[in-house]
From TrEMBL:
Species in which this protein is naturally found: Caulobacter henricii
Main location: cytoplasm
Function: Specifically methylates the N7 position of guanine in position 527 of 16S rRNA.
Keywords associated with the record: Cytoplasm, Methyltransferase, rRNA processing, S-adenosyl-L-methionine, Transferase
GO CC annotations on file: cytosol
One Pfam family here: GidB
HAMAP family from the UniProt entry: 16SrRNA_methyltr_G (MF_00074)
Residues that hold S-adenosyl-L-methionine according to the record: 71, 76, 124-125, 137
Location of the protein in the cell: Cytoplasm
Protein name: Ribosomal RNA small subunit methyltransferase G
Superkingdom of the source species: Bacteria
Family note: Belongs to the methyltransferase superfamily. RNA methyltransferase RsmG family.
This protein's record includes keyword S-adenosyl-L-methionine: yes
GO MF annotation list: rRNA (guanine-N7-)-methyltransferase activity
């Protein structure tokens, strides 16, 4: 498992980005004590389980500036992406979360770290955002997640979804309701994990 120094050596983030990620770690731990944001045990492996898991998405869409994180919850991957895009002109990460109390946490983090992010207390499928990439982690099984993502994908967004070891069965099930092009990418943070890259989406007729 990585510590802060090893994460920086692996990813090449700046000292300022590393400091923002460390501050986010502190805020996450503080709020997690009173609100169920992430599994408490995962805080000990923050730099691998959360920071690296989230930041690896930038390698798959290196030029993208406008992102939407659906079911943003604890801010993973959206807050990490916003930290790393902070000095990129025109960058915005839309943090979409339907639970008001989690939106309060997200707003606190965005303000504290002065991030290029907007918090939306809304259902993902109700928003009409034009983004380059739509992402999610621990949001829903693929069938439902594709439903949430449909408005974004149909406007041309690339889907990058962080998934675990059951991804193959999730994709098989999703194929009963949706037609889409999917490519599985290996995860840098977990050998069992996969990133599902999705392009194009329509309902099965």
């Amino acid at each position: 498992m990585l510590d802060a120094a090893a994460y920086q050596a692996l990813t090449g983030v700046s000292d300022r980005q590393l400091a923002d990620l460390a501050r986010y770690q502190e805020l996450l731990a503080t709020w997690n004590a009173v609100m169920n944001l992430v599994g408490p045990a995962t805080l000990a492996t923050y730099w691998t389980r959360h920071a690296l898991d989230s930041s690896q998405l930038l390698d798959l869409a290196p030029g993208a500036k406008i992102w939407a994180d659906l079911g943003a919850g604890a801010g993973l991957p959206g807050v990490v992406l916003a930290i790393l895009l902070k000095d990129t002109p025109g960058a915005t990460v839309h943090l979409v979360e339907s639970m008001a109390k989690r939106c309060r946490f997200l707003s606190e983090v965005v303000t504290a770290l002065d991030l290029p992010a907007q918090v939306h207390n809304a259902r993902a499928e109700d928003l009409k955002l034009k983004v380059e990439v739509v992402t999610a982690r621990a949001c829903a099984p693929m069938t439902r997640l594709l439903g949430f993502s449909q408005p974004y994908l149909q406007r041309g967004a690339l889907g990058l979804f962080l998934k675990g070891q059951d991804v193959a069965s999730e994709l098989t099930e999703a194929g009963k309701a949706w037609t889409f092009d999917a490519e599985l990418r290996p995860s840098q943070s977990d050998p069992r994990g996969r990133i599902v890259q999705v392009k194009g989406l329509s309902r099965v007729r």
